[in-house]
């Protein structure tokens, strides 16, 4: 998808080679024009004049009015140098401007190599937009689009995409800015031809993809109108020594290692100890008590037996067939022990100890990684709590065992967040397939884990906390493969500038601009969680909710007040309240009191018996035009909380047995009994919360965001 | 504050009187100009030409270029009529334009009364802005400010204020738009003189305040620059029959009634019943079992005694000195019973029954209100669960008693939301002074309650759920009086268009544009809760947190990962991470491991003992440059959750005993023990939550928003 036929790569190559041979980091305007022409990016007619008379004759040929600009490899900011004049509409003006520009340039930089003055057809009209490309430290080549002027400068109303972009992606990018409506024509203006505008984005994205040494490109302004888009000014910055792309493993290589790591035949625990309070004691207890069925080999030179298992002085002494070695020894001993584990053929080394890059010991970490690479061992960590995989009853951690099996795999870069995952999961009985700490990510990172969980039948949703990505492209590629099959939720910490600064001091990771992350994660189909609580909540709830079959959401509520707040939440979360067709409206009305409100929300009013809830909910489930239900419950004596919960669980269960599998969420308002009622509903496949009208709708919104990204709607 | 000397009110009066006498709903351009001149709103030089020759001489006099516009009371949309020409820069152009404009106008509306063509000095340059005024159904006269062009039209980047605005308020309004930076000068442009721009807003706001019959005014565009602001076009719409302003009670009248309603000597319960399951049975049980110490008189013609209290057949038969009558009888009997209660001199009638305006029975509700007004009785409801006031152990409701006394007064328009308030409060042991249902608000509404709770020593925070305001101005006035003393939190439901539609079908209330509510509530110093859960949480937490003494917030965290997320939340909630001075940084560093990060967040790292938390937190409390602390806790064996909670409670308690009263909030990451630890902290004045980094910071942010609005920072 990177390139199209019709591009003149040789022409670009020639320009770039010359710039390289002259050690230049920028292109002149004629060079930029050559690149644009080679990739079919429309530009105004223009030519280079080397005398005032030549400028005049070119201006007449191109058509007045014209713009004149200094051409010098030594003058990058032409306006600052007094090197630009616009709106020259007569031969006299052109002639005078030529001389002024050259004089100004000489005054600005007496040593500048002045090659002449570019005379350019003056474009205008339509809408000024900006199209650019840059090289992001995390994602590599990205393209940016925005409207020109203050909208970009003050409101930062821009949209990013990973390059290269397809025509379809470029159109979505254009529609992504807040002021996109402007392009449809406002104040009587004509609509911009967005296909042709998207074509310019695509061509620029191909150019920077084909020639990675173009580190930045600005087409600014581009005049976009109904008759096409013309880039009036171009700027290219070059970097002939781009950073090495990160090393990558193939999908087969990743899965070969990950399958052994998550489903090990046997595990060695290096530093396993009988001494309570030691990490090596906690780890072996948790592995054994957690119910892991494979062999467990304590490695400890000072003990014959640890926690009832025969111990071995070194890895070399242990039996063969060990897939995983868990390290519970100080950082300084890790490299040597890893060397042994590597010789023994383990697939994964779980590096619990801290004292590596996070405390400034980058070299020690690099040394350990080098050992691992030499032996084909994948590293998890260092500086982690360990990992859990419930299908194998595996709790390889110094925390406590967890084995409420379920579909959610959770990962965290930070140990503190990992502990929150554990506590929250236990408190809410969240069904979990895995909890994994990635810590310093010396080796295994989120794209490895995505690749494994994406094909893991025990996992049907993935929720990740991360502060940075080592390789944004690999992550996007992995996410794109997984998203059509199961939701991927990401909490990206360090979103704001204050947050990013904290990330810097914590991990040394350079947090990229958050807008780049935001746009590109969305482009990859990832559901971004706004905070920790949402990460946990989405992780818990998304596997419980069936996938909706369409956009028609109906609210059925016993409390009108909840109906209003639920409607607010529907809009906030990008959902659509169904326009109820007259026949369905009539059917609802048949079940509710005359002063109740049909329409949407369906307000059954507060004093109704269980049967009213039951009939209306059943109707919503059975009508094929309705795709999702939001329930608002109001605690009354007539329909107590658990009666409501049981009837909803029954009705939904019956519908599901009959093959009707729609997402149902509920907000319960009432006295404290609504807490048990919500738990009952959750356990029966209805995502329910007490005391909040926002959370159930937010979770449904997350499910919809995923379903749309997965192409299921 | 409404008017300034120097306004020529007589001139405005004359113009409006003429318009009224001619039954016109709009002013002509010269009339609009007369209004602007009378109120000192700068406009371009202009004059009326009645012939092409006169137009030319005027143009020369005013200075070319000029704009020419048709003047006709019958042509409101001049552009549509071909009645505007701009940029006329020669006598010939002016002459030709005059004729075209008049011809176009005749073609557009052959019957139009054409008075001539207005010749206007052409203004431009600077920044195009819009200043307007309108009559909001909830708030009355409001003024709007925004940048011109697509920023207003597409991005709706405008700010509203209640008229009249002071110069200071107008400056704040200008700064309130997202693109405000544009006015400081971008792309090398000069900064706009915002004082002079604010002056135009103030003058327009005075004009519409002094002359309520001006229902709408547009100054659009206004050209704002460094040298002043000129309104290039004006439009005024008139309404000589504005709606009646709502009836209001004086503060003394409100308090006289409210004090008797919340602190009654005795209560009558009309419809009190021995029959379980009846509302009249629930109410008397709750009043009696709740511990109310005054006399309780059941009114029931069919019983001698109800729930152990002597019953009376009618109110007339009951003893004197009754302050409150609670109605637990069907709607149709309320008016007659209220007549009796009124004669008995009750101060308040608590109308629990439904079946009034919310079911379409507006007339019945109006009738009941008329009875109440005749007897000087204030009505609460109808269509409510009742009300609680814990200082009097009063639970006048059909729900269940509640008596965890504390400082928060909560009110709700919807019964369902009231039940959520009750359940949430009970579940979290929220200390409550009052819970009040306002239902249909036939009489008592939020401004009455604000007035009472504002001066109630038992209340130190007020949290209100509302779907509409009957009298937005009265609410703002009450809020402005209360906010300097205690926080007022509002959940305004029906925020979005879908939500507003639901509000319409629920209460028949016309929900105003949410942006108007949002800006004006903020102007009144109200803290708006984004959702139900936040309303409850702010209500619970704000009275617990001391008021900060300044903007310097410091994060102290054991989990670096939490530090990053807490920093994100700090920025999201408009707080400022303190730039730690070098000496304080050094002091922090003395307590933390060398690889920990000082700066802000202060990252003490995960493996630290209780003493490290203790020393750093004590330092943050004792250093007078620090104004608020956010703690991030990470569950470890070395510092278990309850150990952390107890030490923080101790350190904070000692500081408070020593007169250091700073807000401290905490996020606890860990296994389920962090839940009990959070509850312990909350009970000891530290606002703490498990499994979330957002909520503690959000609550601190709400406290800061209030403190700023109250003028305490």
From TrEMBL, chains A, B:
Signal peptide stretch: none
InterPro entries: ATP-grasp (IPR011761), ATP_grasp_subdomain_1 (IPR013815), CoA-bd (IPR003781), Ligase_CoA_dom (IPR043938), NAD(P)-bd_dom_sf (IPR036291), Succ_CoA_lig_flav_dom (IPR032875), Succinyl-CoA_synth-like (IPR016102)
Matching PROSITE patterns: ATP_GRASP
UniProt keyword Nucleotide-binding, yes or no: yes
Protein name: Acetate--CoA ligase family protein
Originating species: Streptomonospora halophila
Pfam families noted in UniProt: ATP-grasp_5, CoA_binding_2, Ligase_CoA_2, Succ_CoA_lig
Keywords of the record: ATP-binding, Ligase, Nucleotide-binding
Gene3D superfamilies membership: ATP-grasp fold, A domain (3.30.1490.20), ATP-grasp fold, B domain (3.30.470.20), NAD(P)-binding Rossmann-like Domain (3.40.50.720), Succinyl-CoA synthetase domains (3.40.50.261)
Highest taxon of source: Bacteria
All copies of domain ATP-grasp, residue ranges: 33-69
GO molecular function: ligase activity
ATP-binding is among the record's keywords: yes
